[in-house]
Predict the structure.
Amino acid sequence: MSQAETAGPTAAAVRPLALLGSELATLFRRWRTITMLSALAAVPVLIGIAVRVAGAGSGRGPAFIGAITDNGLFVAFTAIAVSIPVFLPMTLAVVAGDTIAGEASLGTLRYLLVAPSGRLRILLVKYAACAAFAIAATLTVALFGCLIGAILFHIGPVTLLSGSQVGFWGFSGRILLLALYETVSLLGLAAIGLFASTLTSVPVGAMAATIVLAAVAQVVDALPQLDWIHPWLFSHYWLGIADVLRSPVEWGSFLSNLWLQLGYLAVFGALAYGRFTTKDIAS
Amino acid sequence: MSAAAIRATGLTKLFGAQRAVDGLDLAVPRGSIYGFLGPNGSGKTTTIRMMLNLISPSSGTVELLGEPMPRAAQRVLPRVGALVEGPAFYPFLSGRDNLVRFDAADTRSAPATRRARIDTALERVGLAHAATKKVHAYSLGMKQRLGLANALLRPRELLILDEPSNGLDPQGTREVRSLIRALAADGTTVFVSSHLLGEIEQLCTHAAVMRAGTLVASGTLDELRSQAVREVTVTTADPDAAAAVLRGRGLSPSIPAADRVEAALPDGVAVEDLTAALVAAGVRVRGIAATGESLEDRFVALTGEGFDVAG
Ligand SMILES: Nc1ncnc2c1ncn2[C@@H]1O[C@H](COP(=O)(O)OP(=O)(O)OP(=O)(O)O)[C@@H](O)[C@H]1O
Ligand SMILES: [Mg+2]
């Protein structure tokens, strides 16, 4: 017993961030995460090679694709525009749907809880890891876009939508801003996925539900008959990429997006909290 | 220190209409090795989950180390090591990395000593050589050992172990037994569930027996043994005379074979007195034995399963 007292846990300092470090290390060392990030990196690479080989085409195809031959950095823009409707939400849904349900299905959730990690801490850490994945995912697309663009095409000053020109660093800043914008855009979906994950111990179920919701939101957003609901859809600002290319930057839509996403985070975060803190862990 | 290591009062869990645990009252003394016995589905794991705040009781309360759960959970659980319904790990991480993760999940564990503590725990369960192997390549027994290592990541005042020797080979079972004894000798209270009576009998100082969610017996092993229905068997060439003597002493004997007389032994009747009486009555006794004193018979009688001992 004396041994137990000298190493006394009551006297030990509390380290609230230890679990976050462990969560991030676990997430980014998983093959699944690495595979998904590699797939996302392949998007700009494919776009760059396709345009290099076949040319930009005649005005058809994804946004900004015609600009790539003028400036390689547009590969990053095109790749993000291509990824935001499907690839980014899908990979994020895999991570978010797995958060609680994945631990429950492995049975590791009970050992995290008796370690002990409080339930609120587990939720916060899991959500933070989803946000970290969203940043990693958008940055992967952006950085590989810049890289492949620089390798395959000419880079130089860019004429923005409002007519003014920015140099290489200015434009790189815009690309980072776009990555940030799309990360913020995914925060609402991450909260939905986290909540879905507290409802089941079958991770695939939570992932699928989250992906389906992302698809439904975009379909509804495309129906003019339902336009009253559009500003409330978490996917409403996903394609607002052009605002980042104005001079000065259109902060209005940036902020509306941020508030909307924080609203989703508040609602689904509260639901996830209500569910998870009262849930019987019987797996 | 006088408070019980675990105290459950009126602990009840309903799953729908099923009373998985029903009005359980339990006090586990500090320093004991407490066996928690019961057949499959009798509510052992459900009880342990309630103790550890994994599921909330439908009614009743639990105190761990003198503090009320779940209110004191964050303060108490670092002092408690647990194995619940088998081990569970991240299959894509190595054994060591799994322990690193669970240790990091304990907000009060010191990262400076983490490496050394994990090494010691792995050493104690005999897994030092397999520490860098991914858990998906572990055998059932190796996972069970790793689960025990996780419970031993730091010095604990209380260990709650649900079927700790499940899946272990005979050597492993013995090692776990001696490990538990060593920990108890250091002052750790050990609460260990099992449906294997032999294991509890060899290991524990106390035991409680569950049947269909209710506690049917509890106490020290000696107390439980003394409650056992005992039986006396007389091997003799004069069964009728022997039966008459036993009847005279208030027993109700039967003669299952030509040379054997059996009877339940009531409290307060000593076998040596019966021997004297038989000899005094001129019965030619070949042998006399008191049977049915094993905990197994008591266990079977209490839980109502298995073969009929008297038959
Ligand atoms: N999550 C649950 N939902 C519904 N019923 C449950 C749940 N968990 C356990 N039960 C039921 O509660 C009863 C007790 O189960 P428990 O797992 O506590 O038994 P046990 O004593 O640990 O058995 P074993 O020796 O097989 O491990 C069983 O009848 C079981 O079916
Ligand atoms: Mg069980």
Summary: The CA atoms of residues 259 and 265 of chain A lie 10 Å apart. Residues 1-11 of chain A have pLDDT under 50 and may be disordered. Chain A has ten helices and two strands.
